[in-house]
Design goal:
It is built from 9 helices and no strands. By secondary structure, the protein is an all-alpha fold.
């Protein structure tokens, strides 16, 4: 049975969306192609009608995650106090417990780095956040401050997700959130 081009495009999109969720939630290595395709009621062999390799799917799934993050951050950075909103969202309990919906940097970039797989999309995700953070900071060394902020956010979230103790995870998020807001958001107020 032959399917229309529209059906193929819709199926392609469904695979990317599901992979984006699973790669962020479970990890790239732990997400097998066969279970991924089965979850969509598709055959493992059908994967290759859409993608040359798993690496191609990883890049497209990262792009999907980046688009979702861009939309979320657009709302955050349009608020009255954009850095407060961004830090609060990034170091929230929701983000800690919902990796499948959040920023791909804490989950996917560490795994890609360990595998020696650099990703242009990872650069794009980071640079998009840096641009927003730098604009909100509006200071002469905003580029360096943005790198410190993003590195701290990603690191704190990775730690909070990895500890067994819910109390410790909450403490990590609370302490780092408070420190960043005092250092970056308080600094902005003093400079106004």
């Amino acid at each position: 049975m032959r399917y229309s081009q529209d059906h193929k495009a819709q199926t392609h999109r469904r695979i990317i969306k599901e992979a984006s969720v699973r790669f962020r939630r479970d990890g790239i290595g732990a997400t097998g192609l066969q279970p991924l395709m089965k979850s969509l009621n598709l055959t493992h062999g059908g994967f290759y009608a859409h993608f040359r390799s798993k690496d191609e799917l990883v890049e497209k799934a990262l792009q999907e995650a980046a688009a979702q993050l861009d939309e979320h951050c657009k709302k955050l950075f349009s608020q009255q106090r954009p850095l407060d909103a961004f830090i609060d969202s990034y170091l929230s309990q929701w983000h800690q417990t919902s990796p499948h919906e959040g920023c791909p940097l804490p989950t996917m970039s560490s795994e890609l780095g360990l595998r020696g797989q650099n990703s242009r999309t990872t650069d794009e995700v980071l640079n998009a956040r840096l641009k927003q953070v730098e604009a909100a900071l509006d200071s002469p060394n905003a580029r360096e401050q943005g790198l410190v902020l993003m590195s701290t956010l990603v690191g704190a979230l990775v730690l909070a997700r990895s500890v067994e103790s819910a109390e410790l995870a909450t403490r990590i998020l609370d302490v780092v959130r408070g420190s960043l807001k005092a250092g970056f958001c308080g600094q902005k107020k003093a400079g106004q």
